[in-house]
Design goal:
9 strands; alpha+beta; three-stranded antiparallel beta sheet; OB fold (Dihydrolipoamide Acetyltransferase, E2P); six-stranded antiparallel beta sheet; single chain; 4 helices
Length: 131
Amino acid sequence: MSDPSVIPDALRYTADHEWFRPDGTEVLVGVTDHAQQQLTDVVFVDLPPIGKTVEPHGTVLTLESVKTVSDVYAPVGGTVTAVNDQLKAHPELINQDPYGNGWLFRLRPTAPLAGTEGLSATEYKARLAAP
């Protein structure tokens, strides 16, 4: 299980282990520390094209690790406005800094956020602790 102290309170979370943070008119998205630990060493990121439109909880990209291939889902519906190009050459940033330099993409939501989307850090911690 992940160290619950590595779950920033300022972010929102999904049941699929993505984190997201409103950033102006966009949402910054990445995978949680728990997710990167489960994947083990990430070796490839299939970044989406800029302009890709996604539905809430729709697949945005895939991560390939030495262990498995995993989909990453959109926390809300919208359009991809930016991707972390550093991950093309350095996918290990996801393992090293999942809440910082390992971010994956930016999304412009289809509808304004209410601020209650996803799980709070407390709710996410409880989900991880559940048997």
